[in-house]
Amino acid sequence: MNPKVFISYSWTSPAHQTWVLQLATELRQSGVDVVLDKWDLKEGHDAHAFMEQMVTDPTVERVIMICDRTYTEKADGRSGGVGAEAQIITPELYGKQKQDKFVAIITERDDQGNPYVPTFFKSRVYIDMGDEKAYSEGFEQLLRWIFGKPLHVKPELGVTPDFLAGEAGRPNLPTEAKFRRARDLLRNGQSHAVAAAAEYFSTLAESLEIFRIKGADFTPDTFDDAVVKSIDEFLPYRTQCVALFTLLATHAPEDEAVEAVHRFLERLIPYMERPQGVTSWHDWNFDNFRFIVHELFLYAVAILIKNSKFLALARFLETEYYVRTGPGAGKMQAFSVFIGELSSLTRRGQRLRLNRSSVHADMLEERCRDRSVEFRELMQADFVIFLRAALTGERWYPVTSALMGFTAGPFEIFARAKSKRYFGRIAPIFGTPDIGEFRNAIRSLAADPQRLPRAGYFALPVAEAAGIDQVGRVA
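Request: output the structure for the sequence above.
Response:
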């Protein structure tokens, strides 16, 4: 239903009346049911009763006051028709709870540049339409006010941030200020933004020790509870990392972005193994760190794919990591350093009789709350890493493959690779620029059950997920 408005104004001059008539006409052409004395006050009608009805009539949703010098003087002096309207409007303004029925349109200012506005309306917001430039902007503002469609809409109230709303005792790392600084510098394209991101990553890596599970945190029968609790407590920091990964991928030079994330992950590797000086441990004592680091690696890859940073991803996957502690100490290792069985989560599935193929995969899906990365994009990243490993002689177990059987069709990156040109862009990831060689390698992989990840009776449908029948079919 079209909104109904009444225009209150003074017959200051023929030119002013023409201006008001033109405004009313444009409003009607814009879907506003305008009530104007020139159109609706007929001979023999009581002018005062007409004005009172327009101001108080509930069907008249808005009242527009066209304020020039004459209108203001008559309203303040309570003279003429304008004065009568002012006497009606004033109690409406101050006596009713809903006060957005009235608006003042400014068409004239005094010698000091102050707008002519009736005294009863001086403290209220008005719309300036006093010259040609202001008219255009003011007309849009007026329409938005009439239709209740403001330009600036108040956002929905969100939830309290995890790092504030968490349970008592949640680890609180000294990263918030450095995260905000890095985020803002990256958004604004500052030259030292990557250095600020690296500083945040360094602080987070140094502080991660606070998440180490202590003996007092669990009993032997419920160690998996302590692992899950620690992983959950890290979620706010995972969210910060994902935000910076995304900004680095979209706002920073590719080489610098890749190096910053690579160095960060490299600093996390020692947490995945026994610390120096510890002589008694169980292999699952570090499962929380293994989950956290593996998850961060998956997100880094997913974000590079999502933003079509394929050359950067190829460099990221081919760059090895220096391992400082553990079985491979002192050596360079490929990204396979981030895989590892989380026996505590396997035991959790058994203890709680969850009847799930992979508690690890379920947790990754449950935690995939960032709008910037959907879970299917995380699965795609896992699958891409698996193919890269299979085609280059590395190792990788795609944890999320336990849930890939519930997805349909090829992943997006391979669906787009139907184009030969697009395949040429992603080929460096897999180290095989020849389409025929790529197809044959995938078919060979799909035909070898020993090389395929399985979840129960389900084997990963490699050929279907890679869309191998369509890759490179279009010029």
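The beta strands are 4-8, 33-35, 62-67, 102-106, 126-128, 321-323, 331-333, 454-455, 458-459.
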